[in-house]
Design a protein that fits this description.
Elements (H helix, E strand, L loop, with lengths): L1 H14 L6 E4 L12 E7 L17 E7 L2 E6 L1
Parallel strand pairs: 1-4
Antiparallel strand pairs: 2-3, 3-4
């Protein structure tokens, strides 16, 4: 399990330019929160090694990396 987590983290680090300070998990009905972000990188769960894929209808299944105001953040959408 540890090796899988390391592989996942390494993949994500290679895709992004900054390290987010804030993480937000958007549940049902909160997807519009991301509309207020300046998205700099979008990763589909299906493309991330060892990452679970969302099976809930209407969930986008993406990690969004970007800014909101002066804050670097990542959203699970």
């Amino acid at each position: 399990m540890y090796d899988k987590i390391q592989q996942t983290a390494e993949y994500i680090k290679q895709q992004i330019k900054t390290t987010p300070k804030i993480g937000v998990i958007l549940g049902s009905g909160l997807g519009s929160f991301a509309d207020n972000m300046k998205v700099e990188c979008r990763l589909a769960y299906k493309d991330i090694p060892n990452f679970p894929i969302s099976t809930v209808k209407g969930h986008k299944g993406e990690l969004l990396f970007g800014k909101m105001g002066n804050n670097e953040l990542v959203c699970m959408q």
